[in-house]
Amino acid sequence: MYETGGEEGSGFHVFNVATDQYHRAEVLQRTGAIDITCNLEKVVHGAMTADSDRYASLIVMQWYFQPKGSRRISEATIELLFDSLGGGEIEIETISFPGTYSLMPTMQESTVTKGGEAAVGISQFADINLTGKWEKTVSSTIQDAITLSGRKQVINNRPPNRIASWTLSENQSQREGIPTSLKVAILVSREDREKFICKLTFTCKTDVKTAAESIFRKIPKDDPIIFQPDPREKGTRPNKNVSYGDEELGRVDLGGLCDVTFRTVIENGQKIWK
Question: How would you class 54 by CB atoms within 10 Å of its CB: exposed for 0-12, middle for 13-18, buried for 19 or more?
């Protein structure tokens, strides 16, 4: 990891330290008014099922979004593109959080009053104007929530699905930013046991002050993560969170591996010093 302070967007640009660095633990790191971190938390190489002709890899990534002071991210999109280095077909089978989910829903009462003046003229004996005011009040309940959307996509309209993406959006009524923690899981199937890569893209929308400082105007690209399914090839700086040999990865419930947290609160955080 080398500091690239000369690039607009600053922070850190994460490189592979060698061509044989597999399963890089430090997926992404950005520092500034808002710190953004992604770690490769778990990788399991194996097969979809014991009698399947498809190899498989289970991948879990942990994301952290840590604003400083009054800064916030109003929307963030994570995109992972998988590609084979051996020429065989690779496909995203399942992802965590498929579809759209709501977090911390809110209800807010809204009242709008519209008014004006009405005049009636009586001119039989004298000019008399009767003027009155009218008002109309409309009440409604506004429902809103933080939303999380996940999906699989093809590239250039050609199957199979090789892109996994998630978008976090803040509650538009509250405007307190997105959750500070997101853990996602992906199950990828393959035709062979050759190496494959994951190219990562991260984009976000921030508050006006952060955007004005150009902190996220340009986010430098990181080196792709190289995955090596061959257990004999550990490479440089092996990742201890990688395992091999699970032949039932197709049965894994990704819902038990994912998580989203808006804020972590420490109970009994206030203490009296004696």
Answer: middle
